[in-house]
Amino acid sequence: MTAQTDTPGSVTAVYKVSGMSCGHCEGSVSGEISEIPGVSSVKAVASTGEVTVVSAAPLDEEAVRAAVDEAGFELVGTA
């Protein structure tokens, strides 16, 4: 059985993250957030500071904040 990012019941959330400036930054943030249980895909865009997360259920914002902090950046909030 393979995971799909657009399965019925999935939740998409967009977060604003400050401090990302390059592809390495995007990879760091994506890598940390992707380790949160239930996350099926993460797309970080440094130029906009937006991180789009698809998960099986709504995520706890504190869990996302902790992951972003671990990557060395700051979660500003939701977009």
Report the sheet-strand fraction: 25-35%
- Give the overall silhouette: globular
Unreliable stretches, pLDDT < 50, 5 or more residues?
A: 1-5
* Average pLDDT for all residues: 92
Order of helices and strands: EHEEHE
Class by SSE composition? alpha+beta
Q: What is the β-strand count?
A: 4
Instruction: Please state the oligomeric state of the protein chains shown.
Output: single chain
**Largest sheet, described in full?**
4 strands, antiparallel
Distance between the termini: 32 Å
Radius of gyration: 12 Å
Helix percent reads 25-40%
Number of helices: 2
Output the strand order for the largest sheet: 2-3-1-4
Features:
33% strand; four-stranded antiparallel beta sheet; 79 residues; alpha+beta; single chain; 2 helices; disordered N terminus
